[in-house]
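Crash report, auto-generated. Payload:
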Amino acid sequence: MSDVKKVVLAYSGGLDTSVIVRWLQDTYQCEVVTFTADLGQGEEVEPARSKAQALGVKEIYIEDLREEFVRDFVFPMFRANTIYEGEYLLGTSIARPLIAKRLIEIANETGADAISHGATGKGNDQVRFELGAYALKPGVKVIAPWREWDLTSRETLMKYCEERNIPVDFSNKKKKSPYSMDANLLHISYEGGILEDPWAEAEEDMWRWSINPEAAPDQPTYLELTYEKGDIVAIDGERMSPATVLETLNKIGGANGIGRLDIVENRFVGMKSRGCYETPGGTIMLKAHRAIESLTLDREAAHLKDELMPRYAKVIYNGFWWSEERKMLQEMIDYSQRHVNGDVRLKLYKGSVSVVGRRSPDSLFDESIATFEDDAGSYDQKDAEGFIKLNALRMRIAASKGRKF
Amino acid sequence: MSDVKKVVLAYSGGLDTSVIVRWLQDTYQCEVVTFTADLGQGEEVEPARSKAQALGVKEIYIEDLREEFVRDFVFPMFRANTIYEGEYLLGTSIARPLIAKRLIEIANETGADAISHGATGKGNDQVRFELGAYALKPGVKVIAPWREWDLTSRETLMKYCEERNIPVDFSNKKKKSPYSMDANLLHISYEGGILEDPWAEAEEDMWRWSINPEAAPDQPTYLELTYEKGDIVAIDGERMSPATVLETLNKIGGANGIGRLDIVENRFVGMKSRGCYETPGGTIMLKAHRAIESLTLDREAAHLKDELMPRYAKVIYNGFWWSEERKMLQEMIDYSQRHVNGDVRLKLYKGSVSVVGRRSPDSLFDESIATFEDDAGSYDQKDAEGFIKLNALRMRIAASKGRKF
Amino acid sequence: MSDVKKVVLAYSGGLDTSVIVRWLQDTYQCEVVTFTADLGQGEEVEPARSKAQALGVKEIYIEDLREEFVRDFVFPMFRANTIYEGEYLLGTSIARPLIAKRLIEIANETGADAISHGATGKGNDQVRFELGAYALKPGVKVIAPWREWDLTSRETLMKYCEERNIPVDFSNKKKKSPYSMDANLLHISYEGGILEDPWAEAEEDMWRWSINPEAAPDQPTYLELTYEKGDIVAIDGERMSPATVLETLNKIGGANGIGRLDIVENRFVGMKSRGCYETPGGTIMLKAHRAIESLTLDREAAHLKDELMPRYAKVIYNGFWWSEERKMLQEMIDYSQRHVNGDVRLKLYKGSVSVVGRRSPDSLFDESIATFEDDAGSYDQKDAEGFIKLNALRMRIAASKGRKF
Amino acid sequence: MSDVKKVVLAYSGGLDTSVIVRWLQDTYQCEVVTFTADLGQGEEVEPARSKAQALGVKEIYIEDLREEFVRDFVFPMFRANTIYEGEYLLGTSIARPLIAKRLIEIANETGADAISHGATGKGNDQVRFELGAYALKPGVKVIAPWREWDLTSRETLMKYCEERNIPVDFSNKKKKSPYSMDANLLHISYEGGILEDPWAEAEEDMWRWSINPEAAPDQPTYLELTYEKGDIVAIDGERMSPATVLETLNKIGGANGIGRLDIVENRFVGMKSRGCYETPGGTIMLKAHRAIESLTLDREAAHLKDELMPRYAKVIYNGFWWSEERKMLQEMIDYSQRHVNGDVRLKLYKGSVSVVGRRSPDSLFDESIATFEDDAGSYDQKDAEGFIKLNALRMRIAASKGRKF
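Recovered output after restart:
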């Protein structure tokens, strides 16, 4: 194990990753570089500096990646109307490739030969971190303490901290939560605790980002989103950056009780798990993006996207962001968005988002053809007869040859 | 045109199809058989008898098809979590194949050589009726008056009625609606009128089946659905027939403002159109079915279904219910449902449906493995290392050969 | 019918399209512009000039499109390993979009408001021509004489020619063929005649482009093809243009009896038809392209391409080359080819093509890992255990819960 | 390691698995049950009995599984026209699930708690054996000696044999081959040796099952295959069992030099490997099955099968035969075959198979419609106009709104 000289750790500043710093130093006798990113999780990242320093870390990276996160990861994913297993908006999945990328870039900058993270051996996140790392730096050594060490209970962990004078902040509110949580600008997730019984309803005080729909305003909120090439560039006419878009939608959505989700999902490692998610802004974006596409995308383009979406979602969920297949799909998706411009008007009310209008300079909606009124010859209804007859021909032949259902 | 002897007409009893009866008699000098079905549209069908008689029709079929509709069409479709273009629950599409089937069966019983319907030449319904008819009776003659006649404006139609003494019921409430509507047990749809402007918000008084979410009860409603082989067999513990299930869910859903939808969709005939839909029960069923599957379906089975769903939806939307490809997909889907048993607990509140619990005797959720607590060896975290390494291998090789993103 | 002023006709110079020139002049009282393209069909195109002049045509376009055809249509299609229904290399289908494009460009140049072609109302080619034309010039008028006129038998056609002094060349060899044929640089096709009985074997003297395998050389021919970004750029080390590549492969392939095919296919218009094809160069290209991809494409990229290929083939077969969905697929396919470089060595022998070697500077084949000998630690066999265990986990859980096959 | 009491070993009787018997006895101190199957590999299986006895094995299973292999595994797979990566007929992959099934059944019969096999840690076969085993008996212990032991070179292996008096048969012809081989009724495969260089041509004396095409008969061989529900039931009019069908086709195909293949494939474990295969009968069956389907399958049924085939092939290649997704796909495929009846006439000649005729009582080929001659009104060419116009509508609208390519 002595072949590691320097390791870059995805460091939150919390107890677990602080223990990992010390454990890496002890176990591998190596230098630890910490990397802490602000992805919009809603917690200060700067305090991680002093904690890392206290642990003897010399190279400390603390970065605000919110814009890059939304611009290069969240937005591209939403261009595909991506949902995993019909429900999940991939809030955790989409943050991992960015962290993996920065871990590797920092490893290259600092001459580190390994990376490390605090994800357990049962989850998807270990896979996402490590697939990204291997794809970007094939010779990197990955250290996953939770798969290696024997600190598998709270007691052994505490004992380890005490023996090594690792400060444990018992007042930390998050630590007292019975749930395992993860947050970034796209969502916050909850697992564990009573959620391990799929029949048990989540407790109201678990939810942190959205108000209970029952306590949301009695009046609906209207919202207008402006799209350019499939991405939101303005809210209610005000242009803003990608991260600001998402922050704003989170705030408005959360205030209207939007984006709560309670599901059982299938992990890549083979088990089912139950999770609860709050994705206020993402829930709004999905609905609105479909609406602007409904007006501006060709039918078969839309259907092709729809048929490939579950696969694209799976690629991301399973951690293959930095893969050739994801890039190929992305090329197709991005190409399809070049006319996805226009405005969507939404109504938010106590937990639900409704589209109430959409318009576009690139609209393919042709009122003169679609109308129930006189269309002045734009469409010849007699064309339909031949259309139907030839579409029916194979079935007519089959039936006339005696084929039955 | 004299080669038609007898034609079976899908007859609603309304003005348009009444005109068609007379027009068929006049134009083809043929006998007309009327067929009126109760599919749960919420209007009496029996009055169609006297109207048909008044028009000189001798063979009159009036049938309650609600159970067959839900059991053999709606339920099979919901086993696939079917949605067209990410939003539409196919309420109109799924009723057409049953009507086509009965039209043909009645044609066979009465010795008719033709069928007719009141759908226009711009829509999907003509396609659905006629593809079904041709698939089931390849030599049948199809008469689509809207594509043939010159009664293309309200005035010419009225004049035609006056000249022929066709009674026009000006007091009919539905006729005064500015919208083109279609209803059955699964949904009611609205098209035309101000909806032809996709930016215009639908007027509140358009909606007929659901209460405005803002006027819905301030307290959530909880509901428990029981599934057997993918179909709902009981609500809150009370077993009921398929049609009763859907009626019940429509009532509860509508009372909670659930199932309104406003979209622009792509028709099979090539144009975009804007439609509003109310599908209270269907909206609940979709959410609940995904929940019971999340617990009982194998991951790859679920993903296979998800990837094929858009195609299955398109097959139905385009009118190919009575096709070999629909049957093949159905075989696969139905097979997948043999363990989809159990209960789903839902919360309905002012327009939204949330899953709050799910349980099953056939659950594949393994708490002992999924737990964040000690799993007593059910899962060896070390397995994850090899799993990740081999999943990464192709990417590592590519990267080591210099491939870049 | 008098609203057409000028029409551009896809003119072969043969009897049928010569009749069409006159028929268009007579029926529409319009000017006819002829367009004759050399797509490598193996017949002189220049003679079409005097024939058109004799018919009074003033604007005559005769063009050599062979390079454009192979570079912009054939090669892009082969990047996808495209085969329709498991057998057909789309030789006819891929030429139509180019003809449609030139028809429309010429219409724009000459101020024509219509285009015309000599394809019948039963086949795929009318669809391909017209979909292309409509996609590129939505207001164009399309005249398809075979669907309009009453010259439906050989006799009426001859009579029409006699009455109008249209010169009929009875010595024309092609006319005496009992088959309907189409040829371009990619293939020659045969339909009709005894082929209308799918049980009847094609006669040996039908085949024109390839020698009977039984008469082919007794010694195999070896060949080396060089690829850059998925396209062949050199044969046996000699760089050549796209059309020259295909011409060369046709010659070598034909001499070795390669590329004959006898199939029943499903037309877009709904019927099955039987066709025989000779595609010597294309057959070699398909085999070789798969070989160079096998070495240079990532596994999942290759599988994604394979899963989408049938759809891409169908898009082209059905005539949707100039559609958004084809372009989207092409974006993905082309992107995947950026490392598809290297050489393939082939053996041709009496009708079959075998790959005997492939090499690439961008090879992803890693001998040090793949070897059966000692791999010096490149691959840790123990990783396989975890890989298998987690891949098996969902099935183990299902089986432990009593699920059976 | 002492927790294994009895292990069932897939035993070939060869050196490697003989060593494994002894190694299992030594290492696990357990009883070994041997299982040797005749899958048509072309070697006597009975000699395995005395070899096993000599190693002290008490429970010895020797079985002829050829009929089950072809009937329940090979034939179902060929119903889907299954090919992996465009080339490979899955000869090895399809045998593994049957062996896994028998290993588990024998474990259940003999009260064994473990199974073992001789596949290495680099290949696909370990995955296929083990996924099958885990799916059928989730609690089984799997022992894969090649991943555990240190006998990784020929020398250490030989030394181990000498020390333990394991008889090594130096006269064994197969052992002297420089290639790693696997054979069953569907194919024989070669890997390793000079094949590890993908540019090196396979030596002629490597091939064992087929004659060199250059040495094959100078006269073609004609063959007639009869299908029932997608499976071959007779050759040249003579009904025979599934295994006899395949044996017969192997003999005829091999004599005509048919079925050689040389590819680079992507293994599930992440690496590329080069393999050569001889699949004489399978190559014929694939071609013939497509031909009978071309006459009897509905177009969209055929296309649906084609689009899903690569996924089905991948499922089998990766070892997921005993999975829910394979069963779902199989349900769909098998359903589609209920009318796949009839005869296919083939011509075999020096390495190639050509279809020269096909006929069926369930043919969907309609000569009266397909004909180039007068069709007496079976098909109205005018229908094509409306068909094309509505298929073009979305593209016309897009173009008229200014969309460009």
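Post-recovery validation: Residues 39 and 65 of chain D are 6 Å apart (CA to CA).
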